[in-house]
Specification:
The complex is a heterotrimer of chains A (293), B (277) and C (341). Chain A is built from twelve helices and no strands. The termini of chain A are far apart. Chain B starts with 8 loop residues before the first helix and ends in an 8-residue tail after the last helix. The chains are: A mainly alpha (293), B mainly alpha (277), C alpha/beta (341). Chains in contact: A-B, A-C, B-C.
């Protein structure tokens, strides 16, 4: 039977095939709920609860005064940070899921699929779900708390380019964690979340970096998420954006250039580390280990 | 043919409890990497909330609230992930069948899981508490250590009783169990006031949130540990202690009833032996 | 030994089919229907059937993991529905391909944990663990974490778990599944030795391996699509097959040429196949109406000056019994059978 040229190209392109099949699989796994209503609640309740914790904390101290630049800073940073957690945990969790729950990791690695792009694909599903959560949170913020987000004044060029670069960086971090997970035990299900939680502290997600002790501030410069959040805030808040000293001296172009550098670097590092870790895992016979207790 | 002497009744109950606690206790020491990932990294997350309060120039006691709340998340997560959905994981692995077939009660199995998990959670909580106290210069004004110990104990009994109740419900749940556990993280942190006085949520929300033992337990502990705690507390400490004691009895009783009913239902519907992935 | 270890009366089990359904999909699945069975104490009873026949469902009901939807069953005189807790003190089950246990615990620790669930004190538990590990050849692996064990060794450990509490009734659900020949042989020998040493105990074994069933079982039942088709000793089941008798003979060349037509003229010979062998002999495959016809064949060959070199009789096998009763092989899955009216 003659194959079409496009089908031949699809079959021949292992990376693309691994990515698309993994994304499809990730969606099947994520959406395999008995109750779609519960799934909807889950996708809305968790992100809103997370942001409301900060809103209540803020409100308790300021006696309910919310129309300040700091509130917008905190709210927006927390909302956008959901993408960070989703991508980073999505990739590392896929390794645990495939290895320990479904016992499929070894079978996947018996196929000619590209493991690196497979993990990228699995992470993308979480990203998709998180994007919906981010949108809901932002809309909620605008409607309920008067978040100064005007779609007409958003700098879309800056937002989309910084977000695209930022996602590449986050995916790279997720892949590094996923690679580490190949060699570690089941309780590392929390590793992705723990790392994302830790980054919360040093990336200016929910408070300006200036609040950190001066000797800790430079740590923030080491993470791409710091620059992405700054660029995204500038783009989304437009004239309502009030910068804080730590990053105010960086122009929009500088932010994008730094992000681009990180994107390239993390892509290379994650690719190398993933393949090394996979090799180590195969050498130690860890691809099909079960570690529950 | 002479038969082996085997324990029954209460003796068998305790044998089962300690046998089930054993893998948790030993497993925690054999795979030591959790000591880093489940203490130091969560500490960083707690620190983030501390710095939010600092950014807001909040009074010093609020930093203490965040530290104590962050330490107590260890127990909530342990109940959620290592109690509530554990029977789901055991079902997946084939251990649940063996537990059900064994003459020891499932309550004993759950209690064993609780005991083992409590040790792990306590280590995490103490580490977070100790390091946070040192790093952020938290100062405590402890009223009564014995009373604090009583509050903590009552909170744990009620909390793990609730965990057993969740576990029995999840006995017949499939993959929804995992998602339900996931759903109950941030909303509970919010409703129960893990990082702020629960009174800030308003009377009715705080009242409904009090169904969770950690709500009142945290509130009581903060009142005993911090000078601002008393003015920002929801109910008085004796009142909260009494409610926690009643909760403990009710949750454990409900867990026992629920476990029996749901085990019977699981046997009837074939859910104890299915693997719904 | 007498007295029933297991008594099953008109047992049935219907499952509700969950999940998304399309038009025409069945809403219920009949796993078992009208099962009547008595297993005496001291028997090693086998249950044969293809995939999806209902063997595991039956075992799950008897081991109190599942409730029947109709009928009744008793294990050691106790009702599986109303007296499940009492039964649990008396039974254990081992399934093939099990992944139970905790990976971070050693073999000894896992077995100790399960022994404690059955109420054994520490000393007794450790003593029995040591004995069983020796018997099953796992003594040198007692301190190995089970996550480091191969499938076969893990199954051996699970096998030990099934016997460590000294149960009165043991359910073995395809216990040698996926094991290599020597490991399977060790397990079968263990089962035989255990039954010999404990004549008051009972084992109910499900298996796909005919030879295993033939070798081990005192009696066996054939189950298919939830129904019991036959129940008897292996020999009686084989004898019950109405079959012609098949013989293979190797003979020397006779004075005259031996032909199929000439042999078929001998009374009682239904079918003949003659194959010259490489060393100058003739191999005859004969289907005879009855054993007595063999005498006439031998007399005929003698008359032709043809000498008998070897003679083999082909007995019907359990597989023959199975195929005749069930109508197909063991590997045909019937688990997706549709709705019952």
């Amino acid at each position: 039977m003659k194959e079409s040229l496009s089908l031949k190209r699809y079959r021949g392109n292992t990376k693309w095939r691994s990515f698309t099949v993994a994304a499809w699989l990730g969606w099947q796994v994520e959406s395999n709920w008995a109750d779609p209503f519960l799934f909807s609640i889950y996708s809305v309740a968790r992100p809103l609860a997370a942001v409301l914790i900060l809103v209540v904390m803020y409100s308790v101290i300021t006696n309910g005064v919310l129309d300040t630049p700091l509130f917008a800073y905190i709210y927006l940073g927390n909302a956008l940070y959901m993408l960070v957690g989703a991508v980073i945990t999505g990739v590392s969790w896929a390794v645990i899921d495939d290895r320990e729950r479904y016992g499929m990791l070894k079978h996947l690695h018996l196929t000619p699929m590209d493991g690196y792009w497979y993990l990228v694909g699995r992470g993308m599903t979480k990203l998709l779900v998180a994007t919906v959560s981010v949108l809901i949170t932002l809309i909620f913020g605008v409607l309920v708390f008067g978040l100064p987000l005007d779609w007409a004044t958003v700098n879309w060029g800056l937002f989309l380019s910084s977000t695209a670069l930022g996602l590449i960086c986050m995916t790279g971090i997720g892949l590094c964690l996923g690679a580490l997970t190949l060699q570690t035990a089941r309780h590392f299900w929390s590793m992705g979340e723990a790392v994302a939680g830790a980054l919360y502290l040093f990336t200016g997600a929910i408070f300006p970096l200036d609040v950190l002790p001066s000797y800790l501030i430079p740590i923030g410069y080491l993470f791409p998420v710091t620059y992405w959040l700054e660029a995204a805030r500038r783009a989304l808040l437009g004239p309502h954006f009030v910068g804080f000293p730590t990053l105010a001296w960086l122009s929009d172009g500088a932010l994008l250039a730094i992000l681009a550098g990180f994107a390239v670097g993390l892509s290379v590092v994650s690719w190398l580390y993933y393949h090394w870790s996979l090799h180590q895992a195969k050498e130690k016979g860890l691809i099909d280990m079960q570690t529950s207790y | 043919m002479s038969e082996l002497a085997k324990a029954t009744g209460l003796k068998l109950f305790w044998y089962t409890v300690w046998a089930r606690a054993y893998p948790r206790l030993i497993g925690s020491f054999r795979e030591k990497s959790w000591m880093f990932f489940e203490t130091v990294l969560p500490l960083l997350a707690v620190a983030a909330f501390v710095f939010v309060y600092r950014a807001l120039d909040a009074p010093a006691d609020y930093v203490g609230f965040a530290v104590v709340g962050g330490a107590m998340t260890a127990f909530w997560l342990n109940v959620l992930w290592s109690m509530a959905s554990q029977l789901y994981w055991d079902k997946e692995q084939g251990n649940l069948e063996i537990y059900v077939m064994a003459p020891g009660s499932l309550m004993a199995v759950l209690l064993g899981m609780a005991v083992g998990g409590l040790v792990m959670a306590a280590a995490r909580a103490l580490t977070i508490l100790a390091l946070s106290t040192l790093l952020f210069g938290v100062s405590y004004q402890l009223g009564s250590l014995p009373f604090l110990a009583v509050i903590f104990t009552l909170t744990m009994i009620a909390l793990y009783g609730m965990g057993m109740l969740f576990a029995s419900v999840f006995l017949v749940a499939g993959r929804e169990a995992w998602h339900l556990s996931n759903l109950l993280q941030e909303p509970i942190y919010l409703a129960s006031g893990f990082y702020f006085p629960v009174r800030a949520m308003g009377f009715w929300v705080a009242t409904f949130a009090s169904i969770l033992p950690l709500t009142l337990g945290l509130d009581a502990m903060r009142q005993l540990l911090f000078s601002a705690g008393a003015t920002l507390g929801f109910l008085s400490v004796p009142a909260e202690a009494s409610i926690l004691a009643v909760m403990g009895v009710l949750f454990i009783g409900a867990a026992y009833q629920s476990l029996s009913k749901l085990e019977a239902r699981g046997r009837r519907d074939g859910r104890l032996i299915e693997k719904r992935r | 030994m007498g007295a029933n270890a297991v008594h099953i009366e008109d047992l049935g089990r219907i499952y509700k089919v969950r999940g998304p359904k399309h038009k025409g999909d069945a809403r219920t699945l009949v796993a078992l229907e009208h099962i009547d069975l008595n297993i005496e104490r001291g028997e090693l009873f086998g249950l044969l059937g293809p995939n999806g026949a209902g063997k595991t469902t039956l075992l799950k009901i008897l081991s109190t993991l599942l409730l029947p939807t109709s009928g009744s069953a008793r294990v050691e005189g106790l009702d599986v529905v109303k007296q499940a807790h009492g039964i649990r003190h008396l039974i254990c089950m081992v399934s093939g391909g099990e992944t139970s246990g905790y990976g971070l615990l050693t073999v000894e620790e896992n077995l100790w944990m399960f022994a404690r669930f059955y109420g054994l004190d520490n000393r007794t538990a450790r003593q029995r663990i040591g004995q069983f590990l020796e018997v099953m050849g796992l003594a040198d692996r007692r301190r190995t974490k089970i996550s480091d064990l191969s499938t076969g060794l893990r199954q051996k450990m699970n096998f030990i778990r099934g016997f460590i509490s000294d149960p009165k009734v043991v359910f073995l659900d395809e216990p040698t599944l996926g094991l290599d020949v020597s490991a399977a042989r060790v397990m079968r020998q263990f089962v035989k030795d255990w039954m010999k040493a404990h004549p008051d105990r009972t084992i109910l074994l499900t298996t796909h391996y005919m030879a295993e069933a033939d070798q081990l079982c005192d009696r066996l039942a054939i189950i298919d699509r939830g129904r019991l088709l036959a129940c008897d000793t292996p020999d009686a089941l084989k004898r019950g097959l109405r079959r012609e008798v098949t013989y293979s003979l190797k003979v020397t060349l006779g004075a005259q040429e031996l032909t199929r037509e000439r042999l078929q003229q001998v009374e009682g010979v239904r079918q003949v196949t003659i194959t010259p062998s490489s060393n100058g002999y003739l191999e005859l495959a004969l289907i005879l109406a009855h054993d007595e016809a063999l005498t006439r064949v031998l007399a005929f060959l003698n008359g032709q000056k043809s000498s008998l070199i070897s003679l083999d009789k082909h007995e019907p096998t359990l597989e023959d019994v199975f195929i005749e009763r069930v109508g197909r092989g063991l590997d045909v899955d019937t688990s997706k059978r549709g709705a019952h009216e």
